[in-house]
Amino acid sequence: MRISRSTLDDVKERFEMKMKEKLQKKNEYDIEEKMKELKEEEEKLKEYRKQKRKEKRQQQQQQKKSNDQDDGDDQMASMMGFASFGSTSKKK
């Protein structure tokens, strides 16, 4: 058995092949890592949206409670015979 000697071209070819394999493995890892990061980001976004909706509902409930109290005052005033005191500004 004789072993052939490697030429410069053989070594360069082998080196390029190893570099391609290394890059391919890195790309696969990067894809998996990026997918994981995307899922985490989506979860954070969902949680943020959920929190915003919850805050918005609380604000609407507070406004509804304050509007109910204002409506009671307006009804009392109309029962007493006066709807307003002649002001031109309107209540919100």
Automatic annotation (TrEMBL):
The keyword Nucleus applies. InterPro entries: Snu23 (IPR040107). PANTHER family: ZINC FINGER MATRIN-TYPE PROTEIN 2. GO terms for biological process: mRNA splicing, via spliceosome. This is Uncharacterized protein. One of its GO terms (cellular component) is U4/U6 x U5 tri-snRNP complex. Residues 46-92 are annotated as: Disordered. Keywords: Metal-binding, Nucleus, Zinc, Zinc-finger. GO terms for molecular function: zinc ion binding. It comes from Euroglyphus maynei.
